[in-house]
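Q: My labmate handed me this sequence with no annotations at all. I'd like to see what the chain might look like in three dimensions before we decide whether it's worth expressing. Could you predict it?
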Amino acid sequence: MTGAIGSLLVVLAVLLGACSGAGRVRPSGSSPGGTVRLYTSVTQDTVDAVLSVFADAHPEIAVETFRAPTGELDARIASERRAGRVGGDVLWGTDPLSVQAYAADGLLARWTPDEAGAVPAAYRADRFWGTRILNMVIVAGEAVEPMPLDWSDLTAAAYAGRVAIPDPGFAGSAFGALGYFATSPAFGMTYYRDLEANGAVQVQAIPEVLTDVAEGAYAAGMTLDKVARDAIGQGSPVRLVWPASGAIAIYSPIAVFTDAGNPDAARVFANFVLGTAAQQAIAGTGWQPIRDDVTGGPPIDGPQVAPDWNALFQQQDRLLEEYRSIFGG
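A: Here is what I predict for the chain of 329 residues:
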């Protein structure tokens, strides 16, 4: 009798182990489940749109999101690193300079997504992949005269004390623009010195520039095309000016943290963002998708320019220090 009971207990233990998550063998080709923790600086409407289509495609994976501007996201990651471990699984950032700094520190895993071929070579590295393009443009008051036509116009006497620029230490897109201006033969850091000498004012965030211009505090400033179009659509008295020499095209990368708590599910999510369903969602919220085969994005109203991002990697601290020597902060 004792032997029979012992045998029964062994059988029950085996069955319970087979039914538990720890002991389950995942069928070949199936998706991992669990929770993915997403750290992102992407706008809330775009995150929501992507999470909606992801939930339809992968109901077995829950996504918890921490969303903040680049500067605040950097502060959280720095705090967690001091505590011993970053809490995120996926990083979806605004600009490649901020994300590459984490790759250089070993925080991002080497990863090749299934959709890698859809990402143009200029918008990828071995640890992060572009998901969308942000175009830095000029925003001006609807009645401003003369209307600025190019970046150099913002240093003209007509705009003395009347230009707002976002802080590259806070906004990732402003950091990307800094990378372009600093390395462009037509501008260089002299451009920021000329802006400062002309009374340009640094504000914190991209939306703040637009709000200040709309309220008449400034005549013009630097912002993103989506931000300007959204405001115009809501009746804001501003104009989007596509600079004659080119809008600054900044790519927004996605990556998987090296110490991701759920790396398999993290890769499923990150790869999904590069797929057509998520790219269509990104385009539908007003950003230029990274994939050329996805339509419905915003109009591209002129030329686009960008720095050699690879040449800028490892120079992030120097760029910010030089900028701070001009505008402080």
